[in-house]
Amino acid sequence: MNGYGHGEENHMLKSLTELKDLIVSDLRVRVAVAFPYEDHVMHALCRAVDEIGIGIEVLLYGKADDMHPFSSLIVPRADHFTEINCSDEVSACESAVKAVRDGRADVLMKGSVSTATIMKAALNKQWGLVQDSLLSHAALVQTPYYHKLVVVTDGAINIAPTLDQKAMILENSVRFLHALGVAQPRVAVLAALEKVNEKMKATVEAAELKRMYIDGAFPLCSVDGPLALDNAVSLSAAEGKGIVSEVAGDADILLAPTLECGNILYKSLNFMGGARSAAIVLGAARPIILSSRADSEESRYYSILLAATVAGRS
């Protein structure tokens, strides 16, 4: 990724560490964690307690017996941790979700439970966190090969989104960046090439999203597509193909055509591209941290930081 884009009217974040500057100084954030007893999870939470310049409270939902190995971490920070005994994973997930729904917590965080278990609780129609909106996953990525942070979406929730669902994923991501101070995010709708090919659904739907933008459907952002990845993030690559666009070379959001594409892009950046990242689930009543078991302690820490920022600014 190379080449700088089209002006500086947006407040652009270049590093995940800058998230600290966005957190309201007197904000108190309560994080409900379902089955947190995993090293990366607990150390990330402790780092958040120690380093984030806010009042942070962590509600730990899990079995009492599983808490003992982490006593050396919890006891010195006892003012920030509350342990709630739950009989099993399902009970822990349900209790954590209800705490967020009832306003006793601001952020839901997945610990060492399966994604299916915690999402079943979050999606419960009676007491869950989702009503008429569409959930989508947004990863905020810092890579040494790009001049600012960029959002990759959706690499974890929507397997094969329809055109309407892509529009909702786009809107989720735009609102997300608004909360981070980006007034007019630039959205690149990705495909394998920048021209419409009727045999390639991704290009057809990307062009339709661009048409919707031109017609006024997305007034609080700029949208272009289809764009291949190189054209989305490299101005020189876009100019070499004669692409004239307010998005090309300076995208803030990379909207993937399918979960597979988004997941591979996100993991390629992290595991082969020297990137650092934070990720949350958007579209729920409050932010959800849905970390993968492969995510590092650092990634989980920045995800907590990101969720706290969004919770305080939404």
Description:
- By secondary structure, the protein is α/β, with parallel strands linked by helices.
- It is elongated.
- The longest helix is centred in the middle third of the chain and has 17 residues, at 163-179.
- The strands form two sheets. It has a six-stranded mixed beta sheet with strand order 8-7-9-6-5-10, with helices on both faces. Strands 3-2-1-4-11 form a five-stranded parallel beta sheet, sandwiched between helices.
- The chain has two domains: 17-130 and 284-314, 3-Layer(aba) Sandwich (Rossmann fold); 139-277, Isopropylmalate Dehydrogenase (3-Layer(aba) Sandwich).
- The protein contains twelve helices and eleven strands.
Question: What would you say about this model in short?
Answer:
The chain is an alpha/beta fold and 314 residues long.
- Poorly predicted parts: 2-8
Shape: elongated
Ends: how far apart? 30 Å
Number of domains: 2
Output the strand order for the largest sheet. 8-7-9-6-5-10
Rg over C-alpha atoms, rounded to the nearest angstrom: 20 Å
Summarize the helix and strand pattern as letters: HEHEHHEHEHEEHEHEHHEHEEH
The top-level CATH class of the largest domain is Alpha Beta
Q: What's the quaternary structure here? A: single chain
Q: Structural class, from helix and strand content?
A: alpha/beta
The major pleated sheet works out as: 6 strands, mixed
According to CATH, what is the topology of the largest domain?
Rossmann fold
CATH architecture of the largest domain: 3-Layer(aba) Sandwich
Percent of sequence in beta strands: 15-25%
Helix proportion range: 25-40%
Give the overall average pLDDT: 91
Total strand count, please? Answer: 11
Number of helices: 12
